[in-house]
Membrane protein YeiH (Microlunatus panaciterrae), 214 residues
Amino acid sequence: MSLPLPALLVSPLQVSLDLAGISVFALSGALVAVRKKLDVVGVLVLALVTGLGGGMLRDLLIGAVPPATLQDWRYLLVPMLAGLVVFRFHPRIARIEPYINVSDALGLGLFCVTGSAKAMQYGLGPVPSALMGVLTGIGGGILRDLLAGRTPIVLRQEVYALPALAGALVVVVPWELGLYRPWVAIAAAGVCIALRLLAIRFRWEMPHAGSLRG
């Protein structure tokens, strides 16, 4: 049985990591929208969907209704501001388009932590909670890519979901053992981000059908 974490250790950290993850994911969504030459509405939609999609899916699945994004005005304000900033300054921000994957990796790391931790708070076991962490991390990116007419990263050969799973496991195992502390969340996010950035740097790929020889 999982051990509950004192609210003092959860709430401020949970909100801070959530908002940080939303901001960097919204940034990546807005940058994709600018690359696709969408108008301001399109930029805001992709920023909102990318920043909030994974968390809303998680909350609906674990029974956290209404989702946190609809209860706290900051959850809507942050991605909208990110979208407006990107739209207004996109000629300058376009220079950092190569760093979309870096922004995406940061969001993935932050969301795999908050997703798995919130699932544990709601009484799910370690395995379902880890899967909720992965869903939180990849959900917004999947919706972003589908709306932008791209094949979602998680469905390509790139190593994407595995870093999120690794980060989520770093959360749920100490939590189950009653050893979870704020620094564990930071370490878990770091593990996920590092693995994702290494996968990008060294072009690690998952096995695919074309690589199999009969």
